[in-house]
Amino acid sequence: MILHKGETLFRQGESGPLYHLKSGMLKIIRLHADGAITLVNIIVPGEIIPHHSLISPNHYYGTAVALVTCEIDVIDAASWYQELESNHAKCREVALLLQSKLRMMQQRIDQLSEVSPAERLRKLQLWFQSFVPVSSLSEVLTQDEIGQLIGLRRETVNRLLRAQTKRARE
């Protein structure tokens, strides 16, 4: 299946199949009771989501939205779980998928632990470039979302992006 930028793959609270992201990039956002929206995860090619349902079924934790055009395989949940019961190699595959995601989260923690806000932004930009070639993060994420990913206020992100643009012109 092809999902275009801005289209929704699944919504928070629903249940359904699993998905394998073959190409592109998704964001997982969570809607809170007060109406606030939080960016909770970025999904990159090769991942099978939702992660919390790889071993047993659960409702979707958030809403998945395409950041760019994505190619996605739909995985029938019942078949997936039945194969896990009978195929130990499949269990190892799931463990390796989860290990890969943990390692990615370690990289994200390294980005957050940078003292300099400018360096946090630079590392996030480099990380994104390794998956999706965009000239600016603002093409795929709002300044609020960038700030949520690197632990900064939107105003700080705006200032840093303006300073980068100014340096690039000089």
Description:
With 170 residues, the chain is an alpha+beta fold. The protein is built from five helices and eight strands. The strands form two sheets. It has a four-stranded antiparallel β-sheet with strand order 1-8-3-6. β4 (26-31) and β5 form a beta hairpin. The chain is elongated. The mean pLDDT is 92.
Provide the fold topology.
Blueprint: E1 2-3, E2 8-10, E3 18-23, E4 26-31, E5 37-43, E6 48-49, E7 63-66, E8 70-75, H1 77-86, H2 88-112, H3 117-129, H4 143-150, H5 154-169
Features:
170 residues; alpha+beta; 4-stranded antiparallel beta sheet; 8 strands; elongated
Amino- and carboxy-terminal Cα gap: 43 Å
H-E string: EEEEEEEEHHHHH
What does the overall shape look like? elongated
Radius of gyration: 17 Å
Instruction: Note the total helix count.
Output: 5
Q: In percent, how much strand structure appears in the residues?
A: 15-25%
What is the strand tally? 8
**Strand order across the biggest sheet?**
1-8-3-6
Report helical residue fraction: 40-55%
Largest beta-sheet characterization? 4 strands, antiparallel
What structural class results from the helix and strand content?
alpha+beta
- Summarize model confidence as the mean pLDDT: 92
Low-confidence stretches: none
How would you briefly describe this protein structure?
This protein has 170 residues and is an alpha+beta fold. It has five helices and eight strands.
